[in-house]
Amino acid sequence: MQTTSPAQQRIKQREQLILNTALRLIEEQGFGALTMEQLARQAKCTKGTLYNHFINKEDLLCELGSRYCEKQMPFYRKVEAGSINSRERVMGLFLAYQIFAFLNQALFSCVLQIQSNAQLQRASATRLAAYREAEMQLVMCIVSAIQYGIDQGDIPEKHRSNVLQLAFTGWATAFGNISLMLSSQGAFLTQQADREAQLFNATQFMLDGIQWSPLSTEIDYQKTWNGIGERYFKEELKTLGKF
Question: Distance of alpha carbon 192 from its chain centroid, rounded?
């Protein structure tokens, strides 16, 4: 087994300290206001040390995005390990996405920045590729759920050639709704409705639209949605003040 030297451990610990400090600052003031100079000062390291770890803000952003994806995956694995039908599985993945984002809003804001950052190519090729790979692993969980639905006969066979497109549509649906729910604009747009119901409703529209059976006219999926939360994410929902 390969061991980590004391020097390597110190480097890893210092990098984690920098990331934790960056997250705290992002939570307090937003990513746009964060500067590398401020981060070095708050993390109690020199600018040279900081740049040895991250070549710029975009590089830091990609690493935070990768950490987000890595931390989110166990939420997906909980759902995948359960003995539920195909439609319930993909609903569970979307609910897992929502719960994780609500619990990790600063990290989610980093992912939101990645999707809208025109300067992202300034990040190191290694970190950018690592983020894209981590993100794709999450998307592939949705791909797997859709393929399972087709194999089980719950989704019309005609969609087999469009699995990846359907997965990205689902991913975009979840990402867009969660982004709105956590934004000031979303708070305004959903002030007359239960914000936690937004993703549930959007999910049902999408799944019914591709005729993923059983349809929402046949089953009380609100009860199913709540049951998935209770079964797999009871403690997390308690933390959020749900149930």
Answer: 26
Q: Which two tokens stand for residue 209?
A: 């639209």
Task: Confirm if 229 and 243 have CB atoms less than 8 A apart.
Answer: yes
User: Would you list the domain boundaries of the chain?
Assistant: 1-53, 57-240
Residue 122, burial from CB neighbour count under 10 angstroms (0-12, 13-18, 19+): middle
Q: What is the DSSP letter of 215?
A: P
Which is the CATH superfamily of the domain at 57-240? Tetracycline Repressor, domain 2 (1.10.357.10)
pLDDT bin (cut points 50, 70, 90) of residue 4 is: confident
Q: Which of 136, 139, 141, 118 is nearest to 61 (CA)?
A: 118
Q: Model's pTM, two decimal places?
A: 0.91
Instruction: Output DSSP code: residue 223.
Output: H
d(CA 171, CA 93): 10
pLDDT, tens digit (0-9, with 9 covering 90-100), for 24-65: 999 999 888 999 999 999 999 999 999 999 999 999 999 999
- Give the CATH number of domain 1-53: 1.10.10.60
1-53 and 57-240, same CATH topology = no
